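Hey, resending since the last one bounced:
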Amino acid sequence: MANIVKNNGSDVQVQINDINQKLDLVLEELAIQKQKRQALEDLATDLNLIGNDLFKASVDELDHAGIELDTEELKSLFFRLLRNAGTLNEMLQMAESVVDLSKDIGPVVTQMGLDSIHKMHELEKRGYFEFFKELTGIIDNIVQHFSAEDVKLLADNVVTILETLKNLTQPEMLGALNNAVSVFKQIETENVEEYSLWKAFNELRTPEGKKGLGFIMTFLKNITKEENK
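The structure tokens again:
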């Protein structure tokens, strides 16, 4: 019986010791928390003092600068900032995205600029700039020699002019013009043979003369038809 009581007393003492160790840990944790709380309170006090000093210094500076500080407006601005914190956050995110985008496209833009410089240098070497410079002289001569009314008439008849140019650039028309120019170059214009009426009549009786006369008559008839249309 004595052994049982002794054993029970030992178990109780062990439990008490365990409880004491746990209480010591709790008290130690509470002491640590108290120290942290005290440190935060001291920090808050220091920050409050610093904030008050900064506020007073700012008020003095604004007062010296002749600026009147309205605390109600500042308070209203502070609350508006709090209400729009989400919007401000989105704006900051957009600004960060723009900065990231500029970093990404910066090398691309730089390369495009270098490519443009190289291309301009190549065009200059090939004489494009000199060509356009001379072309501006041609345009300047046109402006000086034609009035605004002439330009208006040109605009009114540009379709007819383009149709004429289109017809002139047809292969058969270009061939005929080339033949005419070649024949004209072969004629000695300063030493043209004189023809009497009788000689001209005899020339018209030749196959070439008859064909030429037929061409002229056909040409005149077709012109008349076109004018009647």
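The two ends are 147 Å apart (CA to CA).

Sorry for the duplicate.
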